[in-house]
Known about the structure:
Order of helices and strands: HHEEHHHHHHHHH
Strand order of the largest sheet: 1-2
Strand content: 5-15%
Number of strands: 2
CATH topology: Farnesyl Diphosphate Synthase
Helix content: 55-70%
CATH class: Mainly Alpha
InterPro entries: DUF5685
Pfam families: DUF5685
Number of helices: 11
Structural class: mainly alpha
Low-confidence stretches: 284-292
CATH architecture: Orthogonal Bundle
Amino acid sequence: MFGFVRPLRGELKVREWERFQSVYCGLCHTIRSHYGLLQTVMHSYDCTYLALVLCALEEEGGSCKKRCIMHPLRRRTCAAESDGMRRAAAVSVILSWHKLEDNAHDERGFKRLGARALQFLLRRGYRKAARDLPAFDVCTRTCLDELGQLERQKTASLDRPADAFARILRAAVADYSADSRILEEMFYHTGRWIYLIDACDDVAEDFQSGSYNPVVLRWQLTQPSIEPVREAMNHTLLQSLAASYHAYVLLRPYRDAGIIENILCQGLPEITRQVLNGTFTNHGGKNRHGSL
C-alpha cells in the first residue's frame, strides 16, 4: 500500500519540487544511517510526505549535500536530519517490515520465499526501529491483525477495514508534538484514503483472483471493473481528503506549506481520478532506492 501519496509536479514551483526531492533523499539517508542500507529498498512516497509534514513543524530546518549509491559522482541536496526525519525513518522501516510480513502470509511460491528472505535481511534494522518506536510497532501489529481478521471474515464494509489501517498512520504521529491531536486527525484520514484507493486500484486483480477486496464485496460487483461504483467511491475518497485538509489548516507550519497543500489539494485528487478511470501507474518512483 505504498506509492500513492505524491505531489502534482506540474503545479509545483521549481524550488518546491527541489525541496520535495531533498526531503525524499534526506529521509533515505536518515533510514540508511540509523537502520542500514538495505532498509532504503522499501523507501516510499508515503513516508516522504510524513517527513515533510513533521519537518515543517520544526523551527530549525536546513539542508546538506551528500552522495549515495544511486548518485556516487554528484552530491545531491538533502534535507537535514531532525526529529521529524528520524520519526519518519522509523515509521518507514516498521511499516515496510509489516508489509513484508503480510506478503509472506498472503503470497505463495517464490513471492513468499522472496518476502521471507528480505525479512531475514531487514530483521536487524526493524528491531532497532521497533525499540525506537515501540508503541507504534505494537499498534501496527494490532491493527494489521484486526485487518487480517476482517479479511478472513470477508467483511463487506468499507469503513471497518479502512479504519483499522487508518489507525496505523494516526499512531505514527501520536505524542509527537503539541499539535499531535491535529496530526492524528490529519493522518487518520490520509490513511483511510490510502487504504480505499489501494482497494479501488486492485478491484480487477482481486476480482479475478478471489482475494479480499472491500469495494468488490460492499458493492457486490459482478464484473472486474470499478466503473459501476466510480462516482460513489469518488465521493467517499474525496471526503477523506477533505477531512485531512480541514485538519491540516489548523497547523502552523514554518515551511513547505505550498508543497503540503499541493499534495492534499492537487496530488491526491489527481491520483484518485487516475485510479478511478484506470490510468494510474506506479511508474515514476515507487520503492526506488534513494532517488526520484
